[in-house]
Design goal:
Two copies of one chain form a homodimer. Chain A has helices spanning 38-52, 93-98, 111-122, 179-184, 186-199, 217-225, 229-253, 272-282, 285-289, 302-312, and strands spanning 2-8, 12-19, 24-31, 62-69, 72-73, 80-81, 106-110, 131-136, 140-146, 149-150, 257-261, 292-295. Chain A is an alpha/beta fold. Chain A has ten helices and twelve strands. In chain A, strand 1 and strand 2 (12-19) form a beta hairpin. Chain A folds into two domains: 2-120 and 301-312, Nucleotidyltransferase, domain 5 (2-Layer Sandwich), CATH 3.30.420.40; 128-296, ATPase, nucleotide binding domain (Nucleotidyltransferase, domain 5, 2-Layer Sandwich), CATH 3.30.420.40. At the A-B interface, strand 9, helix 7 and helix 8 of A face strand 9, helix 7 and helix 8 of B.
């Protein structure tokens, strides 16, 4: 028997077959290519159909399916809110998937929960009971493991750490995405660099040649590596925010590990020692000594591994 | 059968007998009067002995004992760290209490956990599965309920919210107690007023008459009620910090309730609507609409009720 894990992102869909012990046997990724609403649902059910009927699996029938979604999975209604997929305000994904997979059980959870579960199963949180996956990408979210279980809260939206208040006083620019995400997400890093460039008339470094509105956080990390002073200033501020956020997770949750992941960690993975140093200033001093801060062990595959683990916990 | 709840504070010891359904039948409070180390342990075992042998309980034998301690209860070792009780760095309270109460089960937990449990049992969190008790007194801590259980973390020190980073950049004054506690505990409120008075040479209001070093947060709240401008400035900043902290609890935990308690709420209880207004600016916008922010329903008795509830969960 095998497990099917599906990771829906904002731009692509990854599907993978795992053995029950967590070995990745087969993986396929397809681009969403501007699909929206029901077209995305159809892509998922098509992929499931393909994997369930694959010759490659003849001796290895799928016993359970897990799905990671880029937003909120409402456990009671089975619907999904995914802000980056047009038409997925309250999408009936559970119902739709169940219609194509017969008696095979289906579990759905948010990407941040799945990242944490992936690390717990086959990554850098193996053996942990209390840990946090801090996902810093276009946005920021946290998958939080409390006593071996994902923290859900009263309405499945716990872990919305992008909204963490870290910089007083309040500014209207925080209204749409939250203070931490505004300053220290991938978008936030690029925005901070653009803002500094606008102010600095004498700057002639490598970021000047980028189309100002098209700059990405990757451009900033690349300039940082080359010693660019605008990039160094931006990254210095980001490290401060990341360190404060890690400190707050440590003081509140007393975890064994905080795992830094998402698209930004990635290129920012070398900055983890600096993030830890900043966190050490702020956090409960005993608690920070009891934990480790580390990079993701699965990188871009954390979501699909988490979906596989979801499947493994809900076998028929 | 009845339950014995004991609440050790920094200056006094409260003991109470509860019926199994949570009715307070009898309560007694004694001052610690500079007792330290083993003398405090002896006071606790004496009180337990007295209650176990009381004539008043002849038909109402104690079936379980719960104890709330002002610090950290290490569940595995049975020892207690209580920073305000000299000699209680790693005090063997569990062993000592068990030596006087025979086969009656004994449970020990931190005050912040007990405040939360008290509200869950007989206060304003009845029926909740996910809630937070934010205790603002001399220091600041949080008792956090996740899916019906107290959040403990990997080493029993979860909920150390006094260390929450809310005001960048880091300042060395945060080293001893944490940023949030520095600014917005009872001590923090009094300190902020003293600092403003030192700077303001023209001030002639009611706080001037207080011995500057002896001023308490109660003096500041009293001056605030009378419209004193120094007090209004101090309380305005405190509301900002309390609101940011509540927002961060809401975004991370998605709770049904946040309960404001401790000695400061207390006099600050009228400020809860202002704290909520500040929290609404910062928090995850859906999550903040799904929760209620409220005062403690048990005020100074939250700890002893929580100790009673601890007892009720661990009956022989």
């Amino acid at each position: 028997m095998s497990l099917l894990g599906i990771d829906l992102g904002g731009t692509k869909l990854s599907s993978a077959i795992f053995s029950e012990d967590g070995t990745l046997l087969l993986k396929e990724t397809v681009a969403l290519e501007n699909r929206r609403g029901k077209e995305v649902g159809l892509l998922i059910t098509d992929q499931i159909g393909k994997f369930l009927n694959s010759d490659k699996l003849s001796s290895n029938e799928v016993s359970s399916i897990g799905i990671s979604v880029p937003g909120i999975s409402h456990t009671e209604s089975g619907t999904v809110w995914a802000p980056n997929i047009p038409g997925w305000d309250d999408y009936p994904l559970s119902e739709e998937v169940k219609s194509v997979c017969g008696s095979i059980p289906v579990s759905i959870d948010s990407d941040r929960a799945c990242y944490m579960l992936g690390e717990l199963w086959q990554g850098n949180a193996r053996g942990c009971r209390n840990a946090v996956f801090l996902a810093v990408g276009t946005g920021i979210g946290a998958g939080i493991l409390v006593n071996g279980e994902i923290l859900r809260g009263s309405h499945d939206i716990a872990g919305a750490i992008g909204w963490m208040a870290l910089n007083r006083p309040f500014d209207d620019k925080y209204i749409s995405c939250g203070c931490f995400e505004y300053h220290a997400s991938g978008d936030g890093v690029a925005r901070a660099a653009r803002d500094l460039l606008k102010e600095d008339k004498t700057y002639s470094g490598e970021l000047k040649n980028k189309q100002i509105e098209g700059m990405s956080s990757y451009d900033v990390f690349s300039a940082f590596e080359n010693g660019d002073y605008i990039a160094q200033k931006v990254i210095g501020i980001s490290i401060e925010f990341w360190g404060m956020a890690v400190a707050n997770l440590v003081s509140l949750f007393n975890p064994e590990k905080v795992i830094m992941g998402g698209g930004v960690f990635g290129p920012a993975v070398k900055l983890i020692p600096a993030v830890k140093k900043e966190a050490e200033k702020w956090a409960q001093p005993i608690s920070i000594k009891q934990m480790e801060i580390t990079a993701s062990g699965l990188a871009g595959d954390a979501g699909v591994f988490g979906a596989g683990y979801l499947a493994s916990k809900n076998k028929r």
